TrEMBL record:
It comes from Embleya hyalina. InterPro entries: NAD(P)-bd_dom_sf, RmlD-like-bd. Residues 3-274 form the RmlD-like substrate binding domain. This is NAD(P)-dependent oxidoreductase. It holds the Pfam family RmlD_sub_bind. Residues 300-330 are annotated as: Disordered.
Amino acid sequence: MTRVLLFGSGYIAGHVGTRLTRLGHGVVLGSRRRPRTPETRGLRWLPVDVADPREVRTVVDAVRPDAVVAAHGPSDITRCEADPAGTAAVHVAGARNVVAALAGRAARMVLISTDNVFPGHADSCAESAPTSPANAYGRAKLAAEAAYLVGGDALVLRVSLVYGWDRTGLRPNFFTMCAERLGAGAPVAVPDEHWNTPVLIDDVAAWTAALLDSPHTGVVHLGGPRRLSRVRWARHIAAVHGVDPALVTAVPQRDTGYACRPRNACLHSERAAHLPELRGLDPVDVFAADAALIAAVVGPTGSTGPSGSTASTASTASTASTASTADPSTLAPRAALDTSAALDASAVFDASAVFGRDQP
Ligand SMILES: NC(=O)c1ccc[n+]([C@@H]2O[C@H](COP(=O)([O-])OP(=O)(O)OC[C@H]3O[C@@H](n4cnc5c(N)ncnc54)[C@H](OP(=O)(O)O)[C@@H]3O)[C@@H](O)[C@H]2O)c1
């Protein structure tokens, strides 16, 4: 068993922690506030602010980790843009604090990073593409990458937009918000010309665990296999729900909270196929996952019948990641999606007001 200290206790850290625990590792989460999400239930937690070197050293001394995963915020890109110094103080100083606290311990380090280290001119970026951050968040994450990579046994996993069924997390993710709104017949407005390669949270957890337990260093990219615009994605979610895709309207990205984001926030990998630890972990297609997730929480398309079983969920999705997609522990109970009474279907939902503020 390996002792793993995860910095962060949010969406990604919770799922990575759960995955590592199932694999037999001893996991401790570290963040400023005690986590309350379902995926962190049962996981050990210690208070720590990564921006404070003494607190980082204290928690490292307490846990004596064999490995560390850095999956902490701030991850709200729009808010980071409004506070570049504060963003750097946590991501850059935090990385230096962690590396310094681990000096001499021979601990493995994995940093969860982002596609915002690229300017977004190219349709998609591989590991060899030149970085040039699109925004303050990307600049801070790129500097954090550098701090980890000079620190020794370190790997940076750059992850594209993460999604999954998550109604209880700190921030809404695009899939969950669209699924809830559109499932209730409510309109949504999303930025046009904002492209992603969305990646399922289960795949992020699986790749992080596999790469943590590997000798590889440097940078690895994880993006989903489908590049699509937010508009296209939202319309697909509408179609899967059996509601009119015209409920989704496009608004200019520059007029939204997405304005500081790269036009293309898309990743692919030229390394992954050569890493044996990732064999059988091909990321699931977002369209297959949309169908599987919605079927699992509301039943098959257009149906108000019982939730899809684990087996039927698995058969809807594709590739080797399907098994984790179908894991019922990652899916909310069916009743959780029945929000129609709580939503005002007459008001156009402006995704930029919510996702622009809260969504990476
Ligand atoms: N979600 C995505 O689509 C995505 C994509 C690419 C990369 N990433 C990266 O992955 C990481 C995690 O993302 P996420 O979606 O899991 O974020 P999240 O759900 O917002 O969770 C962020 C976590 O970081 C903790 N945190 C914030 N400031 C901290 C500090 N000063 N010291 C210690 N912990 C702190 C928060 O807890 P407290 O506030 O209680 O401290 C929270 O547990 C971020 O670095 C993000 O840049 C995310």
